Amino acid sequence: LIKAIKSLLFASILISSIILFVLTINSDLRRAVFQRALHVYQIHEESVIRTLVQQERYAELSDRIIRNINLLTKISKGRILMFNEILHQTEFAAERATQKELTALKPVFIRLLEIDPDLYRTRIWLAEATGDSDYQDAISNIDKAIELSEVDEQAYRVAIEIAENNKDQLLAQHYCNKYLKAQFGGQYPRLFYVGYPGAGLRELSVQFD
Fold this sequence. Notes:
By secondary structure, this protein is mostly helical. It is about 70% helix and about 0% strand.
């Protein structure tokens, strides 16, 4: 039995050495194997992420995405491997999250913005996640998002909602006017903000002389 175990161990070491040698001298094969392994890893992670979202385990989900980012950062140069896939996973989670669950994802948003500060939707998610706890930081992220896409309504909608929640009618009016200026090239006479029901900027009310 011991002799059989030794033979099996020797054969395993020999096969592993041959595979390692072939991968070392054949860069195309090495690249193909690496890409295939990444693809399998990606499919596995997407399955896990979807399960965690369905089970509403957002704290665990946040830790997992951060772990994946840190792992891929160590083996990448420049923009990390599978960055778009990680963004897709984050979007899948954020778009289905409640306010409390978005807060749990805050470390993920911050980490992604450290890698790429020009992520429009990530800026908005971070603003939503911090709107109740850090009002000024939330508005700062909204302003940066608007700089990235001045005509998209999502940033303005979130800004007005945050202002409403913090009982800041002047700030809500500011973003209403700012949106109209971006869309139509200027403000209308005596335009004023009279309420935001949260269904989108098309629901904003305006009044003219």
